[in-house]
Amino acid sequence: MTQQMDSTIQAEIQGLAERYDQEGLQGLSELIAERINRQQATGNSIYLLTTFTLQPLVGNLDRWPKNASINNDWIEFQLEINEQTSETHVARAKIFRLPGKYGLLVGRDIHQLTEAKRRIIQALTWGLAIMVMLAFLGGIVLSRRTVRKIERINQTTQSIMSGDLSRRVPVTDRNDDFDQVADNLNQMLDRIQMLMEDIRRVSDNIAHDLRTPLARLRQHLEEARLEEDPSSKSAMNLEQSIKEADSLLGTFNALLRIARIEAGQVRAGFGDVDFHSLLEDIVEFYEPLIEEKNQTLETTIDANIVSQGDRDLLFQAFANVLENAIKYTPDKGNLSVSLIRLNTELVITIADNGPGIPASERDKVFRRFYRLDQSRSSSGNGLGLSMVSAVVSLHNGSIDLEDNIPGLRTIIRLPMMKKKA
Questions:
Q1: Which residue among 213, 221, 246, 403 sits deepest, i.e. has the most Cβ atoms within 10 Å of its Cβ?
Q2: d(Cα 262, Cα 166) in Å, to the nearest integer?
Q3: Chain mean pLDDT for the chain
Q4: What pLDDT is attached to residue 208?
Q5: Distance CA 330, CA 333 (A)
Q6: CATH match for 2-109 among 3.40.50.2300, 3.30.450.20, 3.40.50.720, 3.30.565.10
Q7: How far is it, in rounded angstroms, from Cα 342 to Cα 378?
């Protein structure tokens, strides 16, 4: 628009200069007066013919513009439109020097051009602001959707890491990149779960199939021992073999029991359990062993706490934990057993001041057959805590191992379950 206006001014100057060359000052003055009269309705064009001393001769300006900025014969100045309101517009003009020391100024009122520029800048500014705002809002929406999807994946993986291998990442109908990742993860989890179930099934089948032959072998060893002289070397070897067979049978029986517990086949044995009486019985059962090692046992067991559960399984689980504490706590060590009720859950804590379990190993000790290096020289098969974990999971509880500084603190949390009507 500015270039078109400048071209128009150049054309007008060219026409005026040609008239001056043909008809002189008189003809130029008449042409300027004619153009001023013709464009009075719009009032956009500006003409001023002056002497070399800038005295006005003809034009619609009464004086030469003051405080005009000059750029290569082009000037911009404030054009007074209304004296009463002091309204002014910006004007753009070009200076042309005529022969005879006359000056010619031709220009235009560029108020409309300036206003159009202002509106364009305003529109671009608002458009940019709206675009930034929409981009910001769109970014928030997209980021929240992304965070929600990632959070669903995190929740699922945390549940899987906690032992719930049946959990899967939710998949939507959008079939976007996240859905494809979720689908691949689910397929991988299906494969892992199948392999783990196969391994567990194989170990359970082996335990089941070998239990009967081992029982027969033990019986034959027992019969052979009865036929030998009790003081003979053969009788002592047979006695040792019987102990090894009993150990193997115990391992296989523990594997089968864990398998039944994890399969939920023992829930039929649930009933009201008096936890105060249960823990008292366990403590009483192990008192001789504690006295033998000159250990000190402190008990804090709340009374009148009754909840649903399998008493035999809970007895075995708590007994395994206390037995480990007694086993690995040195002579004259300290032990503690506590039972409290916190709102809707029971908290059973068994602590000792033995060597404890390193933090990096605490999650691993619940695996089948896993044993710490310092425990490999002692008796056991690495299934005790696996049994405890299975029993606690069967009762919808949780088990945590913490540092007792020194020693180990085992915290078992079980929800209070009322008997179904």
A1: 221
A2: 13
A3: 81
A4: 66
A5: 5
A6: 3.30.450.20
A7: 37
CA-CA distance, 407 to 365, in Å (whole number)? 16
CA distances from 317 to 44, 118, 309, 367, 394 (A): 101, 82, 12, 15, 11
Burial, 193: exposed, middle or buried (Cβ in 10 Å; 0-12, 13-18, 19+)?
middle
User: 348, 399 in Cβ contact below 8 A?
Assistant: no
Which pair of structure tokens corresponds to residue 168?
Answer: 């899967």
| Measured distance CA(382)–CA(258) in Å, rounded | 12
- CATH architecture assignment, domain 268-415: 2-Layer Sandwich (3.30)
pLDDT digits (tens, 9 = 90+) for 9-21: 888 888 888 888 8
Side chain identity at 263, as an amino acid letter? A
Its CATH architecture, for the domain 189-262, is: Orthogonal Bundle (1.10)
Output the pTM of the full model: 0.48
Per-residue pLDDT at 119: 92
Domain boundaries, the chain: 2-109, 189-262, 268-415
Picking from 356, 367, 341, 266, the residue whose alpha carbon sits closest to that of residue 311 is: 266
For the segment 16-37, the average pLDDT, to the nearest whole number, is 86
Contact 196, 164 (CB under 8 A): no
